[in-house]
Specification:
By secondary structure, the protein is α/β, with parallel strands linked by helices. Helix content is 39%, strand content 20%. A hairpin with a 5-residue loop joins strand 6 and strand 7. Helix 3 packs parallel to helix 4. It binds 3,4-dihydroxybenzoic acid and magnesium ion (MG).
Length: 220
């Protein structure tokens, strides 16, 4: 009763995570991810990304970490019909798999550009303030640099979403001090305390930290 979110059991969490079912294209994309040894977002996080993209009718979205296209497809399905996803991944093999995923889902090829390269080589070439949404899901050590780039790329009202904000529960456990966990924990604090961002850490999947960019005020 009452404030019961802290006591949601595993069954309820799993039910919520699968509130929106995935189709064959997403199932096949997950299979490709297993084969390539990478971990895509879960269906609950995908549904949240699609919701956010739809809420702002996102036209220009950047994805950092394409993988096999699971999150790419969820994002594209929320974006405006003429929206274009720019997705960056260091691995050509991932992008080949993502192309299969998006083609199988009948997403028109002009709606995405997949850029193979290191995110920190590619992001600085993208235009300031030209994007509605940025999704971060690549190298954890580079998350602070990705966020800095995201804040440059987004216009006011734009949304940044960051996967793995809970990092298998390690972020919430102060005894965990490995470098990836420390990086993710301090990034979460930075976002929460930023005077420029209105954020929420959604306890979905491995933690989806989402924030809206507000007009520049004095930073906390
Ligand atoms: C890892 C990376 C991810 O983006 C993820 O969602 C889960 C695990 C990893 O590098 O282990
Ligand atoms: Mg991830």
């Amino acid at each position: 009763m009452g404030n019961s979110t802290a006591s949601l059991d595993a069954g309820a969490m799993a039910y919520a995570a699968n509130h929106v079912a995935e189709d064959e294209s997403l199932t096949a994309a997950r299979q490709r991810a297993t084969e390539l040894g990478i971990s895509p977002i879960g269906a609950g996080s995908g549904a949240a990304l699609r919701l956010l993209a739809a809420a702002i009718s996102a036209k220009n979205v950047v994805e950092i970490g394409t993988g096999t296209g699971v999150s790419s497809l969820w994002l594209l399905r929320g974006m405006a019909d003429n929206g274009i996803l720019t997705s960056i991944d260091a691995e050509h093999e991932h992008q080949r798999a993502a192309r299969q995923t998006l083609a199988s889902a009948d997403i028109e090829a002009h709606r995405y550009r997949l850029i193979a390269g290191r995110a920190m080589d590619v992001l600085p070439r993208l235009t300031d303030g030209a994007y509605d949404m940025v999704f971060i899901d690549a190298d954890k050590a580079e998350y602070p640099a990705y966020l800095e780039q995201a804040l440059r790329l987004l216009h006011v009202g734009g949304i940044v979403a960051i996967d793995n904000a809970l990092w298998s529960g390690k972020v919430a456990d102060p005894a965990q001090r490995d470098s990836q966990t420390v990086t993710l924990r301090s990034l979460g604090t930075e976002v929460a305390e930023s005077g420029r961002l209105i954020s929420a850490l959604l306890p979905v999947g491995d933690g989806l930290l989402v924030a809206v960019v507000t007009p520049e005020t004095q930073d906390a």
